[in-house]
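In this section we walk through a basic example: taking a raw amino acid sequence and producing a predicted 3D structure, encoded as discrete structure tokens. The instruction is simple. Fold the sequence below.
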Amino acid sequence: MFRDFMKIFGLALLLAVLLSCNTGVKQTNEKLSATAFEQTLKEKTAAQLLDVRTPEEFDQGHLENALNIDFKDEQFKSKISALDREKPVFVYCLGGGRSEAAAEQLKSLGFTQIYDLKGGIMSWKNDGLPVTASILPEKADLFTDRDFDQMLHKNPIVLVDFYADWCIPCKKMEPALNRLKEEYKNNVLVYRLNVDEAKALSSKLKIEGIPLFHLYKNGKLVKVVEGYQEESALRDMITSI
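The resulting token sequence is shown next.
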């Protein structure tokens, strides 16, 4: 009887030890504001800072000491696998979409401390935080503050889709937006605005994450919606005013 009890007790103790080993490694995957991202980056020793934008975007200015690995690179997963899984990884892109997807890949690879910059380098700049100087010739914006004001002045109702060519959900929504543009052409201007071609305006409006939708009526902003939207949701947004 006593021997059977000791066997059961021993098995229970072994199970407890195994469970404690499995739960011993805590995985952190946090989305941080720009100021929190900067502060946490300073606090963490041996931090790895990862910029997942394209090389061209990177050369236009980046966070100091960042490593550039393009999220769209076919070898992206194998390249990030070379990073140290036991050290913190801080990841960012332009608006937060690519870095969020990259953070999920890092998590799947077993990285234990992942910090994602909410709103990307756009939010970082909006908070007045430093970036390196561009090594590329500065490109003039193709869409300016004046263009934007004129557009709002000429059209009573305007739905603005802030997007970028690299933004996957933005591309998915393009057909729906084209249909809505045609459907409401007599009453509403549906305008797709590329944030990479309107950097000054994007900064002025404090655009951070994309896709982002602004609905204007008589020149005034009346509704803001962020993230991927179904066509029906965008239609409801338009008809709500």
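Looking at the output, two observations stand out. The CA atoms of residues 160 and 183 lie 16 Å apart. The domain at 145-239 is CATH 3.40.30.10 (Glutaredoxin). In the next section we compare this with other chains.
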